[in-house]
Amino acid sequence: MSRHADARPPATDDDLDWCHDAVQGVSRTFALTVDVLDEPMASHICIGYLLCRIADTVEDSSSIAPDEQAHLLRLYDRALDPDDDTTVDEFVHAVQPHLPPEGEQSDDWMVVANTARVFRTFEALPEDVREAVTPPVRELVSGMAMFVERYSQTGGLRIQSREELEEYCYYAAGTVGNLITNLVTRGNVDSERRSRLYDTAEEFGLLLQLVNIAKDVHDDYTSENNVYLPADWLDEAGVPQEEVVSPEHNDRTASVVKRTADHAKSFLDDAQTYLETVPLREGNTLAAWAIPFLLAVGTLRELVANPEHAVTGEGVKISRQEVFAVVTEMNGSGSESLAEMREIISRQPFHRATTNAD
């Protein structure tokens, strides 16, 4: 829950508290972000993220037929459109049959079940905030619907090329970069700074999404029947896309994981530029965005060292000790330390580096 509840934008206190608690359950990374934002930005980002997460949960579901997924996403998009008569209740009614029983709902599905509550809280935000959040959320939703429709015959996404991978990452995360930028550029921001932010916002989002794709190969296929590693790259490595997690291909698939991680690295410089440019206003903090950036750097380090762990299900992640060290350091640091921390983390776990320095 936010540290500054008394400064939150006007809304039903119970609803806003519920939204802040819900973020803690659905995303460790975004929970860290919201925790180190001040108000009112903490609530703006929290609610904006939940709006995105509702669509993401529907898109990721392996129990909903693709045609129905696309229908639900299109309906959700219309409910978000301020110029459309579709109500959130229509989406809630349509998604209801697909909800797990109440006692068996994951944190993600609990958010979907409470879509009306999220909308109610969103609608209580100032008009300029809603105008900043709605377009990128709708673009994310429509992009997800498009990809579901594109692969409706395969029962899951099967990314074919690097270009399509980047297209997917744009809709899934580049749009979120634009959402953040819309919020932080409201008001007086000089044109050069604004241009630099929008020039690099999508790259910030693509970096984070590519890291997730590289590290979650096993779970994406076994839990959601999605393969984001491009078929072109897998084919070059001699791996049929439908056998992406088959043990006999582990080493070859791991080489594609490493290739994906290397591709993610190409977005690091622009992402860092974004962080060094982002205005710190209305509760925005550098730590909120530098922490996921630096954790992505650490995850890339581990992916390059052990790409096979993303394929076998063993998992690729950085330790809690390193997360704690990064969070602690960034809460007391400015942008001038960002490049140095990135360099350290790219070579070794940050908590070990700080211990050695002591």
Q: How would you portray this structure in words?
A:
There is one protein chain. Helices cover 69% and strands 0% of the residues. The protein has 19 helices and no strands. The radius of gyration is 20 Å and the shape is globular. Residues 1-10 have low confidence and may be disordered.
Features:
disordered N terminus; Farnesyl Diphosphate Synthase; mainly alpha; 2 domains; single chain
CATH class of the largest domain: Mainly Alpha
Q: Do you know the CATH topology of the largest domain?
A: Farnesyl Diphosphate Synthase
What separation lies between the terminal Cα atoms? 33 Å
Report the average pLDDT across residues: 93
CA radius of gyration: 20 Å
Protein name: Phytoene/squalene synthase family protein
Pfam family, one: SQS_PSY
Give a concise summary.
The chain is mostly helical and 358 residues long. Helix content is 69%, strand content 0%.
Map the helices and strands.
Elements: H1 13-26, H2 28-36, H3 41-60, H4 66-80, H5 88-95, H6 107-113, H7 115-123, H8 127-150, H9 162-184, H10 191-215, H11 217-224, H12 231-237, H13 250-265, H14 268-277, H15 286-305, H16 309-312, H17 320-330, H18 338-347, H19 350-357
Helix pairs in contact: 1-2, 1-3, 2-3, 2-15, 3-6, 3-7, 3-8, 3-9, 4-5, 4-8, 8-9, 9-10, 10-13, 10-14, 10-15, 13-15, 14-15, 15-17, 15-18, 17-19
